[in-house]
Amino acid sequence: MDELANQVAVVTGAGRGIGHAIALKLAASGADVVAVGRTMEFLQKTMEEVRKLGRKAWAIAADVANAASVEAAATEILKDPGRVDILVNNAGVTRDGLLMRMSEADWDAVLDTNLKGAFLFTKALSRAFLKQRSGRIINVTSVIGLRGNAGQCNYAASKAGIIGFTKSCAREFASRGVTANAIAPGFIQTAMTDKLSPEHKEAIAKEIPLATLGTPEDVAHVAWFLALPASRYITGQVLCVDGGLDM
Ligand SMILES: NC(=O)c1ccc[n+]([C@@H]2O[C@H](COP(=O)([O-])OP(=O)(O)OC[C@H]3O[C@@H](n4cnc5c(N)ncnc54)[C@H](O)[C@@H]3O)[C@@H](O)[C@H]2O)c1
User: Fold this and answer.
1) Is ligand 1 within 6 A of the CB of residue 12?
2) 66 ligand 1 Cβ < 6 A
């Protein structure tokens, strides 16, 4: 069914992993997609796949951590396709290390991309959302933002920040029919978790009640659900997609 027909979805970090799966899931449901990411190379592929599904697609290379870059991307989006109905702030990075040894640069890089990036993109498109009096903002946080994790104080802080940011947006935009929700994936098989050793992954799986890592499609399913017109009465929520890890 084309529940998202005639809607435009902007997905950051859409070149691979979870963002790529979200872009395709929304397109499969009828949405046209603006794929945003650091490099055109991967975005091009996403764009071709969206077009194969019969939807319109645009690719914009932008650094979500850079205000000028985000402003330029937003201006381009509001020119063509000229509107936005769904914004998925998904772009994210890790720079892991124990707190005592963590450099200021590693702290800043993670906070700038994961948290400031969502702020910049949401702000740049907020006027359009408020004017049209409808919209879905979907921010990708992490169970690490809820539980913390040794070696990830920068990442956990950025993801916990996303949750507060999401709830504040939900409150600010509610009167205009714009919802803001967060998805908290657990451990999902992507390039981000490929960095973990097989032993580490096995140890993680033992902690997960459903006993396995998730897939990008598991997360995309929930993004799709939150984007649906029928989800209009859900806002300010954090939905875990984690095999039961955080309960
Ligand atoms: N994989 C997991 O287990 C997991 C768990 C919880 C949350 N998450 C979150 O899900 C999101 C996607 O992660 P993933 O696993 O698909 O990782 P990934 O590394 O495969 O993809 C991240 C994407 O973000 C893009 N990106 C990074 N920095 C950017 C920047 N400054 N500007 C524009 N684009 C940028 C990358 O180019 C890439 O396409 C991230 O926010 C991540 O924190 C992932």
Assistant:
1) yes
2) no
R_g of the chain computed on alpha carbons = 17
Residues 187-236 have pLDDT tens digits of 999 998 988 888 988 899 999 999 999 999 999 999 999 999 999 999 99
| pLDDT at 1 (0 to 100) | 73
Q: Could you give the CA distance from residue 43 to residue 4 in angstroms, rounded to a whole number? A: 21
Interior angle at CA 138, CA 144 and CA 236, nearest 5: 80
User: CB of 95 within 8 A of CB of 109?
Assistant: yes
CA distance 9 to 14: 11
Write out pLDDT tens, residues 95-141. Answer: 999 999 999 999 999 999 999 999 999 999 999 999 999 999 999 99
| Mutation test residue for ligand 1: of 38, 96, 159, the one with most atoms within 8 Å of CB | 38
DSSP one-letter string for 17-57? HHHHHHHHHHHHTT-EEEEEES-HHHHHHHHHHHHHTT--E
CA of 16 to the centre of ligand 1 (A): 8
Q: Could you tell me the two tokens for 139? A: 């921010």
Does ligand 1 have an atom closer than 6 angstroms to the CB of 92? yes
* Ligand 1 in reach of 214 Cβ (< 6 A): no
Just list the catalytic residues.
Answer: 155
Domains assigned to the chain:
8-241 (3.40.50.720)
Who contacts 214 (Cβ-Cβ below 8 Å, separation ≥6)? Answer: 185, 186, 187, 188, 189, 241, 242, 243
Residue with tokens 């070149």: 15
Supply the pTM of this predicted model.
0.98
Centre of ligand 1 from the C-alpha of residue 17, in Å: 7
